[in-house]
Specification:
single chain, 294 residues, alpha/beta, Rossmann fold, 6-phosphogluconate dehydrogenase C-terminal fold, 3-stranded mixed sheet, 11 helices, 49% helix
């Protein structure tokens, strides 16, 4: 049986989410500074993390293999394509018996890579459990990782055939310990279909809403609705470009679904169909209440 206090933990990618996970492990998980390692391409970020007492030892991107050889648990806090490259480059460097997980926002390609990786290192008892913490912040980078709150948030796991129950249970215990309140297990395909709606479509809508208005002073007329709807438009453009394209099939289907609903509302408004419009608004109100658990 694994014990968290006996594990060295590595964070590959000390950005917004990597930094937030590191801080949660220290503040809530009982992980000591000397247990926590990190690698990143930005030396300034690593220096800040060391000097603040967050991590014990850091490694630049070129020396990630040195970190992996020391770690019993590794969080891959990178974009999907970067995770695939990282696994290919450092597949021989992970410590025997290591538990690996990731935080990528799409899961099908990661699950395929995880199966391949686990099969390749099967004799070394390495396990890779794909995951996705449903938390974040509108600003990116390690400096903003304190804005990323895990309390009472959702966490999605997409286990693969290679995964061992004891490792899955251990990872769940860590996830709960750092603040998440609900863990959902689902297939990678179902994850990507649903996340296209709850996350990616929302970012598309927020971006489109900002794109259709050039007046930067319009916020003087905001009363909360505009702010709530567009906060996520302050997104990490490279990361969300990759996520949109990685999951383009499911996302385009959700965009079509949204456009159909928008066209119907537009028709009701344009034709002055008050009764139909009110019925539709009552329906969506009741559905939203149901989504909140009543």
């Amino acid at each position: 049986m694994r014990l968290l206090e006996a594990c060295n933990i590595g964070i590959a990618g000390l950005g917004l989410m990597g930094g937030a996970i590191a801080k949660a492990l220290r503040e809530k998980g009982g992980v000591t500074q000397n247990q926590l390692f990190a690698c990143d391409k930005d030396e300034n970020t690593l220096k800040k993390a060391r000097q603040s007492g967050l991590i014990g030892t850091s490694f630049n991107a070129e020396n990630a293999g040195e970190m992996l050889a020391l770690c019993d648990i590794v969080f891959l806090c990178l974009n999907p394509s970067s995770i695939l490259r990282f696994l290919e480059q450092w597949k021989d460097s992970f410590k025997n018996g290591c538990l690996v997980t990731d935080i990528a926002g799409t899961k099908e390609s990661i699950a395929i890579a995880a199966e391949k990786f686990c099969d390749y290192r099967k004799k070394d008892n390495i396990d890779f459990i794909p995951g996705h913490p449903m938390a974040g912040a509108e600003k990116s980078g390690f400096n903003n990782s304190g804005l990323c709150n895990f309390n009472s948030k959702n966490y999605i796991l997409t286990p693969i055939a290679h995964n061992k129950k004891e490792n899955l249970d251990f990872l769940k215990s860590i996830i709960y310990k750092i603040g998440f309140s609900r863990i959902t297990e689902v297939s990678p395909k179902e994850h990507d279909r649903k996340i296209a709606f709850t996350s990616q479509l929302c970012h598309v809508i927020a971006a489109a809403l900002i794109d259709c208005e050039s007046d930067t002073e319009i916020t003087r007329f905001g009363g909360g609705s505009f702010e709530d709807l567009t906060r996520i438009a302050m997104l990490n453009a490279p990361m969300w470009t990759e996520l949109f394209l990685e999951n383009s099939g499911a996302l385009l289907s959700r965009i079509d679904q949204f456009e159909k609903s928008l066209d119907e509302l537009k028709m009701f408004i344009g034709n002055n169909q008050a009764e139909e419009l009110e019925k539709k608004l009552l329906l969506v109100r009741e559905r939203r209440i149901a989504m909140s658990g009543g």
